[in-house]
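Input chain follows. Return structure tokens only.
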Amino acid sequence: MFAEDIGIDLGTASVLVFVRGKGIVLHEPSVVAIDKQSDTIIAVGEEARRMLGRTPGHIVAVRPLKDGVIADYDGTEKMRAYFIRKVVGRRFLFKPRVVVCIPTGATDVEERAVRQATLAAGARQAYILEEPLAAALGAGINISEATGNMVVDIGGGTTDVAVLSLGGIVCNTSLRVAGDKFDEAIIKYMRREYNLLIGDRTAEELKIRIGTAYPKKRSAGEVMDVRGRDLLTGLPKTVTVSALQSWEAIQEPVQAVIDAVKQVLEVTPPELASDILNNGIVMTGGGSLIDGIDILLGEETQLPVHIAENAISCVALGTGKVLSSMSVLTRTRHLGARRVL
């Protein structure tokens, strides 16, 4: 039996796997738990995520991807091999073809590392696709027309901003400011304001529950109890944080995303800029679900802003559309694109 074609959204925070003919069949955190004594992986995905910050000395739970690219090659290869085996199984005579998405800002070396890790993980062929193109396809945008469309994909490690037309990227930027940087900003804020040390999972929970990029939309009375360690006494401590304070915490990284969008708009050809005025900006990725970020971006750019349906899954869904028409890959290289940063 032949193996199915697979599309992988290899995100810094989570991995989504699309199988042709079945849709998205796997959505798990990009975390591996390694036993340092034997140098073996003991858990991957959700099971490993539950170990973050809770492991004994000889076990370390890590994210092998950082800022959208591979930071730990061996960990990434083993994690991907685990996910491919979990999806495909061992009943196939031929290895699957795999499409993997990468940020537009990835270097040639980083792109080569992704390709090699995918082949080493068990792929017959490995294809690389830029995330904004996959996100646009997954959001239902027809990128093959001679019409300008802008996509802002805020993931876990990177934010990709691109203007697309005729199946390619006209101008773009990729900044390593996204969901993880929002979490880091919250951790720094809690440390500065309350002398409270909190973990990544607590910061992410705060961001999801009461985090906001536009405080006028959210009630200032919304609060959340946050537990951590008091840096002065070393004892466990609980403080109450409001939605307004969450806005204060993430202002800097949010503004960096807004500035990146403006920079791309400044170098967009005028004909495409007029199309964007009609079509608006489409936001994808988990970071686009932060409360009010679409309203803020609309106010800052004076353009209509839409959050895509299934924003978190758009990149993976886009790989699925590519799998059904592999000729798309030959048209989606952005050689000559005007990269802002």
